[in-house]
Amino acid sequence: MPAKSTKQRITEAALQLFEENGFHAVTVDKIVKESNTSKGGFYHNFKSKDELLYTIHDSFITYVIDKAAEAHASYHTPAEKLYETVRSFVKMFEVYRAHVTVFYQESLYLSPDYFDSIKKKRDIYKDMMFSVVKEGKERGEFRDELPVPITSMAIFGMINWTYKWYKADGQYSVKEIADIYADLIMQSLLTEQARKEPAYQRFFLRTNRVM
Amino acid sequence: MPAKSTKQRITEAALQLFEENGFHAVTVDKIVKESNTSKGGFYHNFKSKDELLYTIHDSFITYVIDKAAEAHASYHTPAEKLYETVRSFVKMFEVYRAHVTVFYQESLYLSPDYFDSIKKKRDIYKDMMFSVVKEGKERGEFRDELPVPITSMAIFGMINWTYKWYKADGQYSVKEIADIYADLIMQSLLTEQARKEPAYQRFFLRTNRVM
DNA sequence: AAATACAGACTGACTGGTCGGTCTCGAGTG
DNA sequence: CACTCGAGACCGACCAGTCAGTCTGTATTT
To answer: Radius of gyration of chain B from Cα atoms?
Structure first.
């Protein structure tokens, strides 16, 4: 396999430094030192420190949208789509934890043009969630008394917040966390009737499981 | 009523500026200008910009812990305690939205000593949530298959994330949001049996409500 | 008079970005 | 094959601006 390019080394070093210290606390000199290159090398690969922050944001949100689109295309009912979207998002933490952290922690510091570009993509993702919840209500799978925006943002909150506490070497694996979140969300969204139907049982955790 | 003290004017100006722009993007000069004082006035009231950030953190977390302790003391069952804690936390957004934002967005930039002090208090709050969920499982109110830490953090995520999108002039009031969150959480935590009992119905949204 | 509260010019450290220069490597040429 | 040469990758000293914090001085209160 080919050695990592300078650009890649810079990105990886920056990702880790930004995650740990925040965008503003990390100097270009530190990134340069950590990635074994030079000021010149850095500015040869990136127009600015801002552009670097942007590429980190963009690669992440693009990936997430792709995954969500995949879940939408592969499954038929809103309940299934939501279940798979939630699970695939949480599972993504394994690889993209640092990206997620930077994305939600540092997006305030994107310069205006970059910010707008990222916001557009973030809104696409948000709209996908909104429409799944909406569709689920219309089809009678999800409870009618739940308003779409609040419910959707509650789901986002639950899954996104994970970046604040998840540790790769913690007690629970990403897959376990994903299953628990999916269960919680399904339990609270599905109607009384839907929850009883056999077809929906696969969304729930098995009971009497040893913790 | 007495005129606002310089210290108070500084704190309020800083709060708003930090919320909108982030700690590092706000200079002491800007805070000074916005609060109609001077560099001298600022450094007379605060040891450093870091100390200012700390006092904002501390006043918020202290308030939140007090509220949670109140809910614990006033209610008997874990389900009731959780229900009231969630609702009181969300309702707090009305007054403390800026504090919440700064708390979750900028705590990375607290200097080590201040950070430790805040972390201790945050852990107290976290432990209160953990023990309510744990107690609820032990008493058979909450589903046994849900692990305490993940479930607790999921709840925190749902409610804390609100700072990312809540607007005072939005479609939903804080009280409505609080009721919806409380419903979602109760629906997903309560056991099948508990959910049916009349005593627990008050936790849920009324159905057929017009949205 | 002593302490407190504040004003605002100033300082020094730090940081993002620049710029002239060097190194490497593959294509073209004889 | 030996040689040239240009392009892109990379280097690092340096610059100009910025910002937290200081210091000297003054007004007000006790």
So the answer is: 20
* pLDDT tens for each residue of A64-119: 999 999 989 999 999 999 999 999 999 999 999 999 999 999 999 999 999 999 99
Q: Least CA distance to B195: which residue of chain A?
A: A192
Give the DSSP letter string of A137-162: HHTTSB-TTS-HHHHHHHHHHHHHGG
Picking from A150, A162, A209, the nearest residue to B145 by CB comes out as: A209
Structure tokens belonging to residue A53: 């922050």
Yes or no: say if A158 and B158 are a contact pair by the CB < 8 Å rule: yes
Q: Is the CB of A50 within 7 Å of strand C?
A: yes
Q: Which residues of chain A does B164 touch, with a Cβ-Cβ cutoff of 8 Å?
A: 104, 157
* Residue found under tokens 């995949």: A70
Question: Which of the 35-94 residues on chain B come under 7 Å of nucleic strand C at their beta carbon?
Answer: 36-41, 43-45
Instruction: Give this prediction's pTM.
Output: 0.92
* pLDDT digit string, tens, across residues A169-201: 999 999 999 999 999 999 999 999 999 999 999
